[in-house]
Amino acid sequence: MGFFSWVRRVVEPGPQTGEAAQGRPLAGLLGDPERRAPAQHPEVAADVPTPLTSERLRSWFTRHGYTYFVDDEGDVGGLWRGRLFYFFLFGERHEILQVRGQWNREFAIERLTEVLEICNEWNADKIWPKAYVRVRDDGMVHLTCEVATDLEHGVSDAQLGQLLHCALSASSMLFDTVDELYPDPAAGAP
After folding, report:
1. Which of 75, 93, 159, 175 has the fewest C-beta atoms under 10 angstroms from its C-beta?
2. Which helix (H) or strand (E) covers residue 99, if one does?
3. What does DSSP assign to residue 107?
4. Which has the higher per-residue pLDDT, 18 or 53?
């Protein structure tokens, strides 16, 4: 059995009890493994671009050992370095992958102009991710970023991995920059 055949095999999940508490991916809660990504089935080569589905995205996270969750609306999300990320599929055929991240702290409304300036400078200098703010109903300002990619012609497993890693690492660079500008006072010793 070749390496890619081994990678594409569907691995039956272990017992579901206790997996969430141990921080492992919740593969056993995702439904029928036969409905998962086409790249897992031996008749489809891993390097052939195929349509991206939510099931295929979750399967990719599981295969690579990432812990994630699926919310009530079926959206896939996860925490990376303490920051919340969602992985949305948009478009008529769900062909647009959007990785959207949110900084793990929030700003007071009085800092809105400062944060907008940070976003403008970032967007002027960098291609990825697009940075913007959202003002919530409670008046707090949230820094958000996103990377969107049109996958109309499909995506191979390697391409999907590259897109996800690039989106997460570029977003982390933005959030690290903001962490340097606004250090967390609770992170330091009293």
Report:
1. 93
2. strand 96-102
3. B
4. 53
d(C-alpha 75, C-alpha 132), whole Å: 21
Q: How far is CA 97 from CA 6, 14, 20, 187, in A?
A: 27, 29, 26, 34
Owning domain of residue 14: 3-187
The number of domains in the chain is 1
CA angle (50, 170, 182) in 5-degree steps: 150
Instruction: Give the pTM.
Output: 0.74
- The DSSP line for 24-80 is ---GGGS--GGGS-GGGSTTS-TTS-B---HHHHHHHHHHTT---EE-TTS-EEEEE
Would the pLDDT of 129 be above 60? yes
CATH of the domain at 16: 3.30.1460.70
DSSP string, 115-179: HHHHHHHHHHH-SSSEEEEEE-TTS-EEEEEEEEEE-TT-B-HHHHHHHHHHHHHHHHHHHHHHH
The owner of tokens 């913007």 is: 132
Q: Distance from first CA to last CA of the chain, Å, rounded?
A: 58
